Amino acid sequence: xxxxxxLGALLLGLAVVPQxxxxxxxxxxxxxxxxxxxxxxxxxxxxxxxILARHLPKYLAGKPNVIVQNMPGANSxxxxxxxxxxxxxxxxxxxxxxRNLVLAQLTNVPGVKYDMTKFAWIGSAASETxxxxxxxxxxxxxxxxxxxxxKPLVIGATxxxxxxxxxxxxxxxxxxxxxxxxxxxSSSADIMLAIERKEVDARAGSYTSLRPFIDRNLVHPxxxxxxxxxxxxxxxxxxxxAPNARAKAIMALRSAPEVIGRPYVMTPxxxxxxxxxxxxxxxxxxxxxxxxAEATKAKMELExxxxxxxxxxxxxxxxQPKDVVDExxxxxKFGE
Amino acid sequence: MIDxxxxxxxxxxxxxxxxxxxxxxxVGFWVGLLPGLGGVTTLALMLPFIYAMTPIEGFAFLLGMHxxxxxxxxxxSVLFGIPGEGTTAATILDGHAMAKKGEAGRALGAALxxxxxxxxxxxxALAVAIPIVRPLVLSFGSPELFMVAIxxxxxxxxxxxxxxxxxxxxxxxxxxxLMVATVGQDPQAGIARFTFDSxxxxxxxxxxxxxxxxxxxxxxxxxxxxxxxxAGDVPKGQLNKGALEGVKDTFRHFGLxxxxxxxxxxxxxxxxxxxxxxxxxxxxxxxxSARTAEERAGFGKGDVRGVLGPGAANNSKEGGALIPTVxxxxxxxxxxxxxxxxxFLLGLVPGPDMLTTHLAVTFSMVWTIVxxxxxxxxxxFLFLNHLAKLTVVRGSLxxxxxxxxxxxxxxxxxxxxxDVLLMLFFGVVGYxxxxxxxxxxxxxxxxxxxxxxxxxxxxxxxxxxAEWLTRPIVLVLAALAVAVMFYPLLQARRSAARxx
Lengths: 336, 500
Prior knowledge:
By secondary structure, chain A is α/β, with parallel strands linked by helices. Chain A is built from 14 helices and eleven strands. Residues 7-23 of chain A have low confidence and may be disordered.
């Protein structure tokens, strides 16, 4: 390589090649993608993120490393603020957080710095249905029987902002069931134990988490929210029983985020090309047979919702008229 | 049942299961030593590795790891005064004080030997409790849990200095702890308390940075000011005796070790009380065992009983915590909640079946706890006296290392810089308390019991109104709380009468 031009041509070639061929086909080669989880290690959000972190690289050209970083705090507002404003829009940060964060934005919770609709939405990895499950030794077979009996039922709950509290609260307020909601249990597992010792009669919670107890006939579900899962399609839906449009709107607002049970986003301003790659990989990974087998084993039901559909739901939630939002805030506080 | 007991042992002793257990023990060993990186987080991180394992191997790995974390956590607490785990902070009070007196070896020996006794008692309790576990757990509802917490608060009386002034300070410190526990969104109305519009404070204060601050920072300042080694005032060559002496101490006070093991087991069985509570109750009980005023005053200044109590309790609670997890599918602690995820991964459904069809699997868990602890304690004894030598290393060499541990430890709990600030803030609080002669133990007791007291009282009243006050177990526990509270007074009077 004595000819200076040859050297120049080679250097030029080196400089050009990464920008054309390699960069466009595998921009993630040798990179590390971080999934920021808004909760501590071990919970449902975290376990979903970790299972995705193992299978996502298969579907991204260049097989980047995907790692999980836990950023708990303020019911994951902290993590959302971070992904929204602090992380660079370089396609290397993915965020997953509390599905109810849109309600925090809707009700103007102080500290919210994000706008849900401006995130680069990847989609959702699961939908979580809330059901109310009552003790199987009680004489009520269905929600209708329960409501007609007028008998008071003690509901165990963790606290406002959690579905264990908010779901039965709206049933009580709008459907005229005689509930006494007792909150302060430290986890939904503790409520289960309170059900075992008959301290409480029922609890609301995600169908997934109640499944083991339904399977061994400790409790049985009587009513569900809008999002649907296999096995509980026939249950009555809370908003279909609503006595008026206002009540229906409030119930719908509470359950809207449940369809986006495990939201995944990237920083606003992430290049469209990168977002497209991650969106495709996300959709493909959730259908990966190995991932599905692992999730089934772990009793997690994953279900893909596209970024576009997610955005549609969020926009609908955020475009509610002010009077509905005000009424909604009277009952529902953002939390957990 | 006996068959299942032996079948369980044989299952663990299969070479693959045993190898996985050793691997788990190795990981748990380091996790315990390092402050901040807790057993809970590590369990969550290790969970994906069990996909390919059989149930026995999976549990040998996870439980092997989990059951030694509290054991080696005590080592960091004793040597440096930093809680190696959130659940080993109580060991600092007397353990680190002993290290400063040149008795690090003895303190470590006592901590490890009592840990082993605790683990064995806990495992034994798990085995024995299997037939009666359902009625036992079910008889403790929210009112009973509230009263257990009240008994815990009554222990402040024995954790405070004697006399009216000492008691007043003890209860004020306890009250401060209760108040600090209320920081964050309350679970009844969703109101943010003491959060000063800060997102960081919304979910309440994490225990680990608070404990690291309140215990480690005053020790660091003290070490820096003295300008010597940790065991600075001890003549050279006096150090290496200890480890065996500590083991002997465990048997000298065997009754106490056993009682504290039972306290730990009981707290473990009760879901919702949490691991941090067990060792503080045990410490309170250990302090009660002092017979004279001088002995009382010696607690916190290096009484070996203050090491034995928490050492035993924080290991025995693990066997206890497995009980509700296995029998109801309801985890007794946050680490058990993650272990529950492990059950599902391994294709087991926790619940009554675990006590009948899968009894051998349940017993294999008992054996894993037993074997993992024996292995760890024996391994630790091999280099215990070398570890103790760290206390004669010059302070100026040690302080940077400890500082790194303190900062990393408080950061890794949540990966939040706010936690580092929190640690520093409570470092100042801790230093002021030590300087002003205020006891730190009641403060921590209030802190760990605060939420339990508040929530269970609310639930009791909301569910039963005033009726809960007449429940038999509540009455028994109320009597116990009164006894615990007035025991120190009685003791003082008795020793005064004897002295006069």
